[in-house]
């Protein structure tokens, strides 16, 4: 024989549940009300921007490893030139797009910007990484672009870059 816990009448339990649900709704009210359609559009944009950012990071890793470990100087030069020419802008655009859509989703949905710790961590990481792209990567890739141009195979044959005449890495 099982006994029901005596927590009060059914009406009292229903009132407690209603009070809890109302309190949750008050806390989770979005600051920018988004319609269902706009929320979905922004969410798709956020996921696409995040996926693009991850894909660009994989491409960066492949090009950097190719630049470090390739035996052929022309291949190393091409890898660094590709990094300098084609990676900084798309990475920055996808990072900023991810940041903007994340802010819109945080302000327009129940998740909020600082309601949950993991949303705040994502926001801080995104801001830090976008700042690092502008402050660290862009000047470094400008330097690598210069190195790639001076150590190109054409100039190496003309002996304009003595470091590339050997099989050592370019400075």
Could you characterize the architecture of this molecule?
It is a single chain. The chain has about 170 residues and is mainly α. The protein has one domain. The chain is built from six helices and no strands.
The share of residues in extended strands comes to under 5%
For the record, the count of structural domains works out to 1
Low-confidence stretches at least 5 residues in length (pLDDT < 50)? 154-160, 165-169
Helix percent band: over 70%
Shape: elongated
Written as H for each helix and E for each strand, in order along the chain, the element string is HHHHHH
> Total strand count, please?
0
Radius of gyration: 27 Å
| Count of DSSP-assigned helices | 6
Properties at a glance:
mainly alpha; elongated; 171 residues; disordered C terminus
Topology diagram in text:
Elements: H1 10-27, H2 36-69, H3 73-86, H4 88-108, H5 117-150, H6 153-157
Helix pairs in contact: 2-3, 2-4, 3-5, 4-5
Short description:
This protein has helices at residues 10-27, 36-69, 73-86, 88-108, 117-150, 153-157. It has 171 residues and is an all-alpha fold.
């Amino acid at each position: 024989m099982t006994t029901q816990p005596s927590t009060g009448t059914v009406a009292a339990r229903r009132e407690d549940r209603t009070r809890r649900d109302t309190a949750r709704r008050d806390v989770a009210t979005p600051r920018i009300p988004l319609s269902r359609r706009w929320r979905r559009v922004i969410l798709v944009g956020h996921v696409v921007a995040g996926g693009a950012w991850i894909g660009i990071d994989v491409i960066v890793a492949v090009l950097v490893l190719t630049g470090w470990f390739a035996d052929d100087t022309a291949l190393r030069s091409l890898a660094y030139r590709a990094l300098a020419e084609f990676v900084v802008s798309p990475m920055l655009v996808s990072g900023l797009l991810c940041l903007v859509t994340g802010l819109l989703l945080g302000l327009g949905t129940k998740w909020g910007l600082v309601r949950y710790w993991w949303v705040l961590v994502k926001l801080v990481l995104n801001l830090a990484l976008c700042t690092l792209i502008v402050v660290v990567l862009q000047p470094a890739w400008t330097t690598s672009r210069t190195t790639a141009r001076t150590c190109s195979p054409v100039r190496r044959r003309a002996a304009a870059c003595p470091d590339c005449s050997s099989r050592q890495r370019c400075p």
